[in-house]
Design goal:
Layout lengths: L4 E6 L3 H11 L4 E6 L2 H10 L4 E5 L7 H10 L8 E5 L5 H9 L4 E4 L4 H50 L3 H15 L5
Parallel strand pairs: 1-2, 1-3, 3-4, 4-5
Helix pairs in contact: 2-3, 5-6
């Protein structure tokens, strides 16, 4: 699996985005930075993300409204959101963040190592989920192949039980095709 996990960074201040990108440097994650809630929603239409770091207080569409839109969409409702805010430690804002679906709420200044650890957990979960999806697909393909092979053997057995010599030749053909993975 060569797909790299992505983190969506959403903050209206460019310097904050640069700081977040620096904090995440060296993690197995590709950062995608946008400067508004609207831009985040557009980005979520084209990319899948392991985690979203979302500024709570932005002009126009704030982080809470953005998160609310994210959680309403089927495609994005399970993407973990970590709110980041410069607001003082107002418990009501944190509760509002959790109410719209955030998995965490950090106030600035926060410890960059803690943020890295949190992002790492979500990147690991995303990666493991992708691996499970891929393994599930392999199992589905093998089950289909097994069903096809079983059907071919059943058909060959039916033909071999018949008295018809042409049927015996057809049964041999079916078994040969099944042996090479082609369907009759």
């Amino acid at each position: 699996m060569s797909e790299v996990a992505k983190a969506l960074l959403v903050d209206d201040r460019r310097e904050n985005l640069l700081a977040l990108e620096a904090i995440l440097q060296g993690l197995p994650v590709h950062s995608v930075a946008v400067e508004s809630g609207e831009a985040a929603l557009k980005q979520l239409l084209v990319d899948d993300f392991a985690v979203i770091l979302l500024d709570a207080q932005m002009p126009d569409m704030d982080g809470f409204e953005t998160a609310s839109h994210i959680k309403r969409r089927e495609r994005t409702r399970h993407v973990p959101i970590i709110f980041l805010t410069a607001a003082d430690r107002d418990a009501q804002l944190a509760l509002r963040g959790y109410a719209v679906g955030a998995v965490d709420y950090l106030t600035k200044p926060f410890d960059p190592w803690v943020l890295r650890a949190k992002v790492s957990v979500f990147v690991d979960l995303w990666t493991k989920n992708r691996q499970l999806v891929a393994q599930s697909e392999v199992v589905r393909e093998r089950n289909t192949q097994w069903r096809n092979l079983t059907d071919a053997v059943d058909e060959a057995t039916r033909l071999l039980r018949s008295e018809n010599t042409d049927a015996h030749e057809r049964a041999a053909e079916i078994l040969e095709q099944a042996r090479w993975g082609t369907t009759p």
